Amino acid sequence: FVPVSFLLFNGGDLIGRTIAGYVDTSNVLLTKRLLSFSSLARFAFFPLFLLCNVDKTRLPVVFHHDAFPVCFMLLFAVSNGLTSTVCMMLGPSLVKTSEQEMAGNIMVFSLSSGLFAGSLLSFVCLKIGTGVW
């Protein structure tokens, strides 16, 4: 399932980033509200993944079929690509013109740092989960 989920996430992320090219960001207030909602709504995926038929020893299984984690992963990936790309498109326009380049650089640095920290944390979680430290 790991290679499939890796491919599925990256494909869904690409779809979300492609869809973001068609989002109209001219209404900044509406776009900011939608981004805030979509960012907070993504926290709903944590319990959804935990209640899938993956590890029966920790939580009760609510979603027994194997299609559920696949669908959840695809939705999570599309929302990830869409939300992050619209944020990157909208962010520099929210500051003064003289500060837009710096804002873009800070956003790219923050995104890259977050991805790096997340990849390091995955190794720590893997070590803790397998009991091999």
Automatic annotation (TrEMBL):
Its main location: membrane. It is a multi-pass membrane protein. InterPro entries: Eqnu_transpt. The keyword Transport applies. It is found in: Membrane. Keywords: Membrane, Transmembrane, Transmembrane helix, Transport. The chain crosses the membrane at residues 34-54, 66-91, 103-126. Pfam families: Nucleoside_tran. Coiled coil: none annotated. Belongs to the SLC29A/ENT transporter (TC 2.A.57) family. This is Equilibrative nucleoside transporter 1.
